[in-house]
Amino acid sequence: MRRLWxxxxxxxxxxxxxxxxxxxxxxxxxxxxxxxxIRTGLKDLATRGITTSGTEHDDGLEARIEALPADQDVLLSxxxxxxxxxxxxxxxxxxxxxxxxxxxxxEIHVLLFIxxxxxxxxxxxxxxxxxxxxxxxxxxYVRKYNRPLITMRVLKRLQSQKEIASITVRNYSRVRNAVAxxxxxxxxxxADVAFHESKDExxxxxxxDAEMIVTRWVNGWSPAFGRKLAIxxxxxxxxxxxxxxxxxxxxxxxxxxxxxxxxGVVNQMAGPLGxxxxxxxxxxxxxxxRAKVWGTGLRMFVSLGGARVTALARKILP
Length: 318
Fold this sequence. Notes:
Layout lengths: L2 E5 L7 H10 L1 H6 L2 E2 L4 H8 L13 H7 L5 E5 L2 H8 L1 H15 L3 E8 L2 H15 L6 H5 L4 H13 L4 E8 H4 L3 H8 L22 H13 L1 H14 L12 H22 L19 H15 L2 H10 L2
Parallel strand pairs: 1-3, 1-4, 2-3, 4-5
Helix pairs in contact: 1-3, 5-6, 9-14, 12-13, 12-15, 13-15, 15-16
């Protein structure tokens, strides 16, 4: 029997860490009869702990699967699978069915990591500022947050597919210190198998308070440049403490009320280790001085290099 193991995310639940582990442990996976068809370039990045898209779903994925031994199971890891299932479920499932037919998979096993709603909303907001040009305040994002509702819909539809042999849900907030162990328990590996880890990998950290303010400001001028600036700052200074901002109490309560029913349904499907918890936090906004913002902004621009870039910083920083 040949099986397809698909880790579908979702975002902000340790996927970069897991994908680094998978890329670093191709030999361990292969010794257990599992192939991980990652592109060579992404393998090198993931091994260094730099954020990648895992195995992706690019034009070359099928060729990489086909190149694996026919008697191996296949492991795929890509957050985009969750997004595709949420936005175009039938199209994505048709792809999975085509892989079963083409490559002889008899079963599909799905692993989904979720995260407590307040923590996930805050982390997602920081990602939007960092990588997607976000300029609006945190409360505005939290008031529209509906990831538990989307998760409920995806899980319900997955449960109805005959090709899906199992769906495992884990709450990253509950198991974040044992994510690798959860994956090993999910995969068909021997009990004594362990992944090789690195202590020198680049940390995919969040932005500091001052970096958040600078990035939002630059996003208002050029989202593409803001993204480049924030990502380079994270890579140049990986050990800085990320911001611990939290939305207002009113915004938290509003979001929890809107998602309460969906969270309840997910909890019934997911079991104890996969269920949501209420994670209300004391409100906390970015707090820093104007001098700190200026200093951080210049440091971020300098990390890109070049006198012209630094001169540009002096013109556009608040």
